[in-house]
């Protein structure tokens, strides 16, 4: 992992992020209730993180999944909402790969840093209308939607030969109503995960796609689950941030009750050591699994059921481990951590919110197990 970390750190995107971190931290000093400040989003744009998955033909970076994972992790280590914004906002590149190149160029070539937010699960409906669809619905968890140019909105086709099919419609944000009073959450408070709605929006067929029908043969885009590879970066970065905050806590002040320096407490030393071990193991698991998946698609093949299952289980397990890290450090920090402004409380709230993501659902193991033995599993499990 050390060799890989050193290799990744030399990538221009990661160097740009590292350079921007002090200014990003300053941009967050004035907290926003439910969305990242405009200044923070502008700084993220400047690093190039929103175009890290976009094809070079469209002005993007087209970085490999390990670089993307590390970019999200690096940002989340400073603030989970920064990492979340980067994770969501950079999906533009994957969505563009499902489109005809001409259409993708019309959407992104003039602004490769454009954010595509949205909710791709089929919460809306699509009715066939001429050479397209009439789309209506209300979608939750539209993270980064305030700063988005496009909203990727999952729908069920209601009629015709494709009735029942799950499609994703790319709607201009101007065709939607974003409810900016709909995100009052435990954590990830800066993610701006607002609900949004559309009523009878006309979407040409060429601006819709299905995840099971990739158009690109490029290794980065031919495997439909690859866009999920950066998801663990949010929880890994948050866990590493919690370890950093806890280490700082141990290096200053006295332990309540005993009055001795915190750093001399065996219980606190143990909590730190265990947290480091768990986080390090989870990181290795995530990077190894993503690396294996990347090796497979680079070799010109698609991952089979077992490899896709391993990838899916990794996502859930890493979330489980990182949640335990944040909780254990919060508990070890004792009563002082209950205050709103305590950094470990913030880390725990962000972690609990991030791990409520569908990819961290506790039934994941059950669903993947069913798929592995040939039994029915929910759509999209693998």
From TrEMBL:
Record carries keyword Oxidoreductase: yes
Top-level taxonomic group: Bacteria
GO molecular function terms noted in the UniProt entry: flavin adenine dinucleotide binding; oxidoreductase activity, acting on the CH-CH group of donors
Record InterPro entries: Acyl-CoA_DH_C, Acyl-CoA_Oxase/DH_mid-dom_sf, AcylCo_DH-like_C, AcylCoA_DH/ox_N_sf, AcylCoA_DH/oxidase_NM_dom_sf
Oxidoreductase found in the keyword field: yes
All copies of domain Acyl-CoA dehydrogenase C-terminal, residue ranges: 234-359
Keyword list, A-Z: Oxidoreductase
SUPFAM superfamilies from the UniProt entry: Acyl-CoA dehydrogenase C-terminal domain-like, Acyl-CoA dehydrogenase NM domain-like
Protein name: Acyl-CoA dehydrogenase C-terminal domain-containing protein
Source organism (scientific name): Streptomyces daliensis
């Amino acid at each position: 992992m050390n060799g890989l970390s050193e290799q990744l750190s030399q990538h221009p995107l990661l160097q740009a992020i590292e350079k921007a971190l002090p200014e990003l931290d300053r941009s967050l000093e004035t907290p926003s209730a439910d969305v990242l400040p405009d200044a923070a989003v502008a700084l993220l744009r400047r690093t190039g993180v929103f175009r890290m998955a976009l094809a070079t033909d469209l002005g993007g970076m087209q970085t490999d999944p390990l670089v993307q994972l590390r970019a999200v992790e690096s940002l989340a280590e400073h603030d989970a909402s920064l990492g979340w914004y980067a994770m969501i906002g950079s999906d533009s590149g994957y969505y563009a790969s499902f489109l005809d190149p001409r259409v993708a160029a019309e959407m992104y070539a003039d602004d490769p840093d454009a954010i595509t937010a949205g909710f791709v699960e089929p919460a809306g409906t699509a009715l066939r209308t001429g050479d397209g669809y009439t789309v209506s619905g209300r979608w939750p968890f539209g993270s980064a939607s305030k700063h988005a140019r496009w909203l990727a909105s999952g729908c069920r086709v209601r009629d015709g030969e494709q009735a029942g099919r799950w499609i994703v419609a790319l709607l201009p944000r101007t065709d939607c109503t974003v409810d900016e009073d709909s995100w009052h959450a435990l954590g990830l408070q800066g993610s701006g995960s607002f609900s949004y709605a559309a009523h009878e929006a006309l979407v040409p067929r060429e601006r819709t796609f299905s995840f099971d029908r990739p158009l690109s043969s490029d290794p980065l885009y031919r495997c439909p689950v690859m866009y999920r590879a950066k998801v663990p970066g949010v929880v890994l970065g948050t866990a590493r941030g919690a370890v950093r905050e806890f280490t700082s806590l141990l290096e200053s002040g006295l332990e309540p009750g005993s009055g001795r320096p915190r750093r001399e407490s065996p219980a606190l030393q143990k909590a730190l050591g265990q947290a480091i071990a768990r986080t390090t193991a989870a990181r290795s698991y995530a990077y190894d699994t993503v690396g294996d998946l990347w090796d497979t698609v680079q070799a010109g093949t698609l991952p089979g059921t077992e490899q896709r299952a391993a990838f899916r289980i990794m996502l859930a397990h890493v979330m489980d481990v990182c949640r335990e890290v944040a909780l254990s450090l919060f508990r070890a920090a004792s009563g002082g951590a209950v205050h709103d402004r305590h950094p470990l409380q913030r880390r725990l709230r962000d972690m609990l919110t991030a791990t409520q993501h569908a990819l961290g659902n506790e039934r994941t193991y059950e669903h993947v197990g069913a798929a592995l033995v040939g039994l029915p599993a929910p759509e999209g499990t693998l």
